[in-house]
Amino acid sequence: MSPSICGCRLTAFLLTALMTLTPVLAFEVGDRVTFSRAGSSGEGVVSDVRGGGKFLVIEVDNGGRKSKVVVLASQAKASASAPAADDSMRMWTDASGSFSVKATLVEQSATMATLRKEDGRVINVPIEKLSIGDQEYLALMDTADPNPFAGGTSMPATGSSFAPSSNGGASPSRSFGGVAQLSVPQAVKLPEGKKLLLTNMSPPASIQADTTPYDFSALGNAALNVTKKEFREDMTRPFIVGSDGSTLACCLKSSWSNNDKFTKVFHIDGRRGSAQQVAECTGRSFGIASADPGTGDALIIFDAAQGTQSSGLGIMTGLTDGSPRIAMTWDMFPGDSNKKDYVRYRRVLPGGIAVVVYGQTIRVINYRNRSTVWTCAQTMFNEPAVSAGGRYTAVADTTGEQIAIVETATGQQIGSVPCGKIGSVSMGFSPDAKRIALSEGNKVRVFEVATGEVLLEHEANVPLSKHGGQLPWYGQSFLLLPTGPVLSLKRNLIVWNYQMQGEPIEYADRIFEGLYPVVNDGSVGIVRLPHEKAIEAADREVGDLAAVSQGDSIAVNVTGSGPGATTNQIRSWIEAAIEKAGYRVASDAPTKLNASVTRGKTEERSYREFGNFGTTEVKFTPYISKVDVVQGSDTLWTRSSRSSMPFFVRGDKTLKQIARENEKPNTGVFENMELPEQILKLEYQKGFGNSMVSIQGIRDM
């Protein structure tokens, strides 16, 4: 039974400019060659050169459909003659009328035309550089639907729902020659790389722009039923494995029982709207965790024998043309088969580089050389941020109170962005790597990387960050915060809020390009964020958004006290913070700042001494320190802290002594309080709307 497409709404989309590829010795990209492979011969155009010239990726024409094959360069030779001209050959002229070339149209996108010249070489020409006559010709030729997920039913309007088809598997639109049986090669031991020790440096004034080499801006919302999923089977999110965005891959795996473990690999042809199983691995379960669209190389994570954590990783190649193979694997903790962990960050970059985090360590691996480039200890639950093109890696340094900027390929620290005391944060580079955003708790800051200057600060009355996680930019105008809000950088305002399944940002490979992968049962899809309503909300005129702004008056009320925090001390700290933020203190102001110290309920804590059985109990009554800014019945801004017992206790003191020492207010809530320069009205603090994001698309709530 053929698969059904649920909600395709992708705008017209074709190949963009070819990637800059590795220099070659004997062949160059665009060369027309003949080759022999598997006992047969063929002819095509070189589209990539790998392994220092050892391998060629050749684009061939199979009955009008383009596909790619990898062959040894030694088995290829330049075509003896150029292809004969045919009816599609025509003369192309540039806009100035000064230059012309005889060529045939291969394909076109919204901005680029791909032409094959008489000698077989392929060139990419911006459409705006062509003559008006040639542009008219291209418009007439634009009759086929080139959408990556073309076909099926159209996507319903936002707010309505659609469901994946309940049919079984997907009938392929083309054959890959059966389902390949994947073998898992023996794990290699990666040589140790450089251990990076972070130092405090000046900001990297010479940082260069580093943008993504891929253009997926035209990719929109689509979903596709891939296969039937049985009980205790898991479908992974889809990953783009083709440079034009039309080829994706995903896995169906079973990891519940060692005896029944398997993984099925599916190739998704977005142009035809079809999916086909192309490979299977029995006895091991793994999922695709990241992929480089330019090469189709993917990072895979193997499930451990038991539990939900992982014990090994690997690299899969050949996903673009539906011929996957596991090229290499490595153990996360060599020599300790029982140790496992979550892979908290995963990213495959151009050039054969993978960036992963496990065992509280950032690891940058050159999988083509099978070596570790560099490692860096990472505290808390923090994850690195990697620029869109992969050139730079940002590391949160909680000890040095900085964001260290490191060259990914070499492990050389080139500068630091001072950020003050931080704990568990989320970070993200802007699309050009010139700015970096950092969120912690309910606060977001945006820094200029080259100078360290704080360009924007936003403090909300709602949580904006989680433990670690990514902080993706949508263009230069929006941030998607880890908890779901969309922050407009132009207005310094939360304009929308998304509710998403699972941990979408953590596991989304192209989330920094606005592409959110979704999965439900046996169906997968992609959702484009932010959607139109969220973008329009950023320009919404609503009058005065602020409830309190600099220059306004605030009245102070203090109730309660505790050890180290008298009423007068608390008032003094609070009034100083109000004036520092640009407000005035006035007893009759309509805006009130209420500071309080109260006692919580007495609780009993149990401790176990190392080496001994049994536990010792101790009673503890916490102090609760709290600050609220209110107008009438609306609480506009709040901060609180609850004292607690330490998780571990050491020394000669008894548990009762330790309990009494910790039964005191956290004075930092008052003494170190930083009020925002303006506090929004309650109705604007969570944005202008909410949406649910799922396999059904975006549904406004």
TrEMBL record:
Keywords: Signal. It comes from the Bacteria. InterPro entries: Quino_amine_DH_bsu, SHD1, WD40/YVTN_repeat-like_dom_sf. One of its GO terms (molecular function) is identical protein binding. The keyword Signal applies. Residues 149-177 are annotated as: Disordered. The keyword Signal applies. Residues 85-139 form the SLA1 homology domain. Residues 155-174 have a biased composition (Polar residues). Residues 1-26 form the signal peptide. Pfam families: SHD1. This is SLA1 homology domain-containing protein.
